[in-house]
Design goal:
This protein has 259 residues and is mostly helical. Among the domains are: 108 residues, Tetratricopeptide repeat domain (Serine Threonine Protein Phosphatase 5, Tetratricopeptide repeat, Alpha Horseshoe), CATH 1.25.40.10; 55 residues, no CATH class. Helices cover 73% and strands 0% of the residues. The protein has ten helices and no strands. The longest helix has 44 residues. The chain starts with 13 loop residues before the first helix and ends in a 19-residue tail after the last helix.
Amino acid sequence: MSYHIKVPAKTLPVDEAHMLSSLDQTLHRLQNYRRPLLVGLGVVLLAAAVVGGVFYVDRQSSQQAEALEREAIRLLTDPAVTDPQKLDQAVTAAIARYRQVVDQYPRTPTAPLALYHLGNMLVQTNDVSAAIEAYQRYLAFYGSNPAMTGLVQQRLAYAYLLKGERDQAVKALTAILETPGTLNRDQALFELARLEESQSRPEGALAHYQELIKTYPKSPFTSEATIRTKGMDVKKTQESTPASAPVAPLSPSAGKEKP
């Protein structure tokens, strides 16, 4: 009688079967979301390429703006330029370089300072109206730096004075006092006081001088403000004191005895 050995059927453990089933489900889900995933990956890669391109363009623009600024400085500081006609040509060329920076590369770090120098150069060439436009453009686009903003406002006030527009100059100087963080508030007070003096308004001038002396005792403008204040006080005292009656001259017969 023969015996048959039964070979048990191969079965997977429960945990292994469950793992394979989960893996199949995961692969199936990935197949269903494959297209959205590929689209998302493409978008990410495209965004990275765009950002990289922007950084590259910005870097190239910054380098070109810096090169133009260096060229402008070289033109203005060239010791070989001694002839007045050549100097005028160098100034004109430098102005063209600064204009190119602010017009073509306005988002570069070089642009704000180039615009400030452009305004100064235009004042130097007596193109005051264009200089005022340059300063106003600076304040409109790059006014976040309070230190530079105060300096530009001061230059703008001087430009207005060159045009005879005192009221606009006063507004520009007052803006310095109203802008937090400006570093030339003492000079703005001094200039406002001088403007008041020039308009024969001693009370307004005295108020500005006194504020300067009180708030900025170590300012280089304080000593002159003190001298001017004392002079105004003396003048005010003299004007308020009534003049003594003039003494009538003696007649020729005065002091002689009658016969």
